[in-house]
Amino acid sequence: MKKLKHILFVLLVAGMLLPAIQKAFQLLKENPLHGDFVLAEKPTLAKAGWFSGSFQTQFDSYLEQHIGFRPFLVRLNNQLDFSLFRKANAEGVVIGKEDFLYEYDYIRAYTGKDFVGEKIINEKMTRLKFLQVYLKDSLDIDLVLVFEPGKASFYPEFIPDRFLAEAKPETNYAKLLKTAKEINVNFLDLNQYFLNLKSKAKYPLFPKYGTHWSVYGMSFAADTMLKTIEQLRNIELLEVKHDSLFVSLVPLKTDNDVEKPMNLLISLPPSELAYPIFTFEEDTTITKPEVLVVADSYYWNIFNARIPKHVFANEAFWYFNAKVYPDSYEKPLFVRNLKLQKEVEKQHVVFLMVTERFMYKFDWGFIDDIYQLYTPQGLQSPVYDQLSHLLKDETLFASLLNKSAKNNISLEELLWAEAKYQFRRDDKKAYLQFFGTAWFEAVIAADKEWSDAVAAKAKKRNISFDEMLYLDADYIFKQQYPGLHQKYHRTNYFKSMIKKDSSKLEQAKNLADFYHCPIERVIQYQAEMLVEEE
Fold first, then answer.
1. Domains of the chain: which residue ranges?
2. How far is CA 88 from CA 35, 255, 398, 481, in A?
3. What pLDDT score does 283 carry?
4. pTM for the whole thing?
């Protein structure tokens, strides 16, 4: 018995020392963990850090993250959580029915929780429509919107019921698609195409443990896009052959890109996945168009299959409208550093591709950036432009989503309120030029004591509260910003004049039709021009 205790004690001590020994001597080779994370660096000892306690805290984190056998221990912990509690220790991963893996943002989009509202989508799509018409008629450039499929839309039957029970009636995809049809936007709906193929495809179009279309599924998408180019440009492209494929039980490329960051000890049960073998036969007589693709990560499978390299005259891929590939392989190159108009105008085709997860901010500013190149500055909508910009701030968007759910306020209402606030904060004079007296009315109405005083004054003068509110607000506006006050009211005068003049109103309607924008915005623009001419 005593001997057994000694043996157990030795084993316990050895077990405690093994991680330290492994860290010091690397006795066994360890497979690194998957995922996007940064290990803590060893802190520098300093007097201030020691006495404040920050050094000890940082050193604890450093030791914990660099301990020997850490990858194994993390995988063991993750495996126990997954096997015992159906828990995924990876950010944003949702374990669905029959162990189908999802990223939460796709479920959020499918259930309409990130629906940004009709007004935002209408503005975006009418701008896109103008650009499609203008670029085609003036420069013979085809701009095509591509709705990529999403895993939540493709496999809703495996989404946990708790998410489906909270589904909203509208989604960004449904509204974008509806608007695209109504105003005749040129688009490809690969989402619906994949749903049509779902029961016919021999192999999975979406992998069980991945978030993107499978390599096999990508081949159908690529075929459709290439045929679209041939139809639009009336040309014949280089033939992309993928008559042969091989089947694997081991997921390759991106086909298990959700499982990988879960860092499990034991791989999930395999299933058959197909991998087409692409071949290209060069032909110097074939036309190779210049093609720009602005897209999310779904395009990587097409890009890495070398289809653009062989079929197009270029390989231009603007990842999230931010980073430029393939240029960034050699040295980071960003879209903001390019001469945008020059880059766009040398293309024959521009594909703007987006999956359901990103439809709330679906073009990452691309449409708005291009729209500014071909329209008068006065036709811009500064509040919308501010809103479009803030949608790219994922932290702020998540905060507004939480606020919307917590306070039962529509996300659309919060977005516009935040955009107005940011516009006023960044350029109050420009803000007042748009909203003028109405803003001062809102300020007074929001202050109960002030509002009560206005009500008392209205009663004394025997006029309505709204009339008195306007008079007080306009007086304050004039006192604080006399120049802007005059300009604001002169603009309103000319707006009224334009609406009463049939010829000027007709001119405004024609301009609104040309730029695919609201007539009120054109009238505002024309009135501002008349004020400037005075």
1. 2-86, 99-377, 422-533
2. 13, 18, 21, 57
3. 87
4. 0.88
